[in-house]
Amino acid sequence: MHPPVQKPTPPGAAASGASPDVLVIGGGIIGLVTAWRAARLGLRTAVADPSPGGGAAQVAAGMLAAVTELHYGEQTLLGLNLASARRYPEFAAELTEASGLDLGYRRCGTLAVALDADDRAHLRELHALQLRSGLESEWLTGRECRRLEPLLAPGVRGGLRVDGDHQVDPRRLAAALLAACERAGVVFHRAAAERLTVVRGRATGAGLGDGSRVTAGQVVLAAGSRSGLLAGVPEDVLPPVRPVKGQVLRLRMPDGLPGGVPFLSRTVRAVVRGGPLYLVPRENGELVVGATSEELGWDTTVTAGGVYELLRDAHELVPGITELPLVESRAGLRPGSPDNAPLLGPTALPGLLVATGHHRNGVLLTPVTGDVMAAALTGGPLPEEARAFTPDRFAPGASGRPASPAPAPPSRPTPSSDPRQAPATAPAPQEQPV
What we know:
By secondary structure, this protein is an alpha/beta fold. It has two domains: 1-106 and 167-241 and 337-434, FAD/NAD(P)-binding domain; 107-166 and 243-336, D-Amino Acid Oxidase, Chain A, domain 2, CATH 3.30.9.10. The protein has helices at residues 29-40, 75-99, 117-132, 142-148, 170-183, 304-317, 366-377, and strands spanning 22-25, 45-48, 63-64, 110-114, 138-141, 158-162, 166-167, 187-189, 193-199, 202-208, 213-215, 218-221, 242-252, 267-272, 275-281, 286-290, 326-336, 343-346, 352-356. An eight-stranded mixed sheet has the order 5-6-4-14-15-16-13-17, sandwiched between helices. Strands 8-2-1-12-19-18 form a six-stranded mixed sheet, with helices on one face. Strands 9-10-11 form a three-stranded antiparallel sheet, with no helix packed on it. Strand 1 (22-25), helix 1 (29-40) and strand 2 (45-48) form a beta-alpha-beta unit. The longest helix has 25 residues, at 75-99. The protein starts with 21 loop residues before the first strand and ends in a 57-residue tail after the last helix. Its EC number is 1.4.3.19.
């Protein structure tokens, strides 16, 4: 099922006061890329979000790790991840040209390492799975890993070098998408959508928290972890999305070590005490360390335990990290779905589409999500790699519905792009140094 094709709108008509062709609920990176692509197609486009450009991207590390993020049983998701990773160079160039802003896109590669025999065996199995899946990765000894990254701990037993897994700065990505949307004539309603408007069995807009109503030809629900909270959506259409808390640290690396050796030259990943850990170095000297994964509802408190665990595990991987200044600690909410894969495209309610549930892959999947939603909004067929991720797989009685539903959210805050992530020491949702 696809919505009717919208007729292109003359440039500048989006700001003329006419009802939009498309209303996007949620102004995080997924909502913004959807709005940008819709506006570029000539559709009058509006976004409803009290703070566009915020959301989970303000906390995310920005790893574009289609290969090293591969897990058993997720080969279908791998196809979508790879398609988006391949799009990133062109997407970054297009967005930079459209916004005038750099995204911090780096082709620096990723090194996944093992700290003990069990981790080494697991990495060996992952390497075999990668090779069976036709992916490129290289097995390295511990000595070869330390040759690439001299500050790694002496106990590193081996690792996988994946030159094709890159990175981007999610905060820059969000800022660039916001600027590109503004330049393309997208209208921003800086209020949360509270209720979907349904007229004669079709979604026709939304009522906002400021008391206004927006009427639109099509509505896209892209509110991140809050996507399942919008009032007025039929129960069998409401996306089964839940919040998954992640705590992340940002440290400051030294300008240079003796001999001109960088503190880290690429993303380094490991499994420590059974939990995944990543260290992502930025060109500006920032080092992102993350992340916890906690099913705690809407809580975004940065905890002493979370900070301790991240620093403890990072110290086992790179001992010198404990000497670095701690600049920021934050917590955000990933939008998790029952199968940890996104929901993309039209729903069973005419006029309503969704783009949500990206879990840990929102930044990676930004380009392909834009492609998919552009096709869906104009009535075209979805790209082949996206057809397994339509929201109807969770409809009652659907064969793709997981056996166990997502945990029910403990409360119903107002939808937006995502709950505003709170810094460690202040109640206001603004960045603060620790």
